[in-house]
Design brief:
There is one protein chain. The protein is of the alpha/beta class and about 210 residues long. It has one domain: Rossmann fold. The protein is about 30% helix and about 20% strand. It is built from seven helices and eight strands, in the order βββααβααβαββαβα. The protein has an eight-stranded mixed sheet with strand order 1-2-4-3-5-6-7-8, with helices on both faces. β5, α5 and β6 form a beta-alpha-beta unit. It is globular.
Amino acid sequence: MRLTARPHPDVSRSLAPGTSEVGLPTGRTGLLHVPEGRITALVLSLHGAGGSAQHGLSLLRHLADARGLALFAPRSAGPTWDAITARGERDTAAIDGVLHDLLSRLPLPADGLAVAGFSDGASYALSLGLTNGDLLRRVVAFSPGFSAARERSGRPKLLITHGVHDDVLPIDRTSRRLVPALLRQQYVVDYREFDGGHLVPADLAEQAADWLAS
């Protein structure tokens, strides 16, 4: 689950603002959104089980332009991400290939690569972020189930949200176990529970976008 892509120094921007499709080695298609003006971060935005690239993009798309966030939302090769099912690493390899290209064409701050996701996408975001914390400096996990990180690098900062009435990934079996374990391991975790179910409240999405751009 290691990513080999790395930011390039002194990159000149060669990608026009707007939203476009990106072909993936898996045969799927992802979406890339590039804001106008200065880019504060490139965020890998991951959909939940059964979702699509559009679902991944929609997590932060309405907030991205005002904060200078570029978003790359891939589509999983199967119904959910390979890391969730432990059936290989096609998704990670596909994402890595696209990141190699994007990082050579988008100027970013030194710590400007991040990952965010919802539900299974949040579990995958945590897994990728903990494994690649030397590259993915910030991780947003909206209602995660678990982390599948088998190795770890770096010390990414984590923002985790979860609804206390979540009946898909019940909070007592997921975030209320995950977060204390991460804190014991000395990770910096901003954890926010909310009075709701399996969703991303608008105010927490906005706070996450602000945090990613800061």
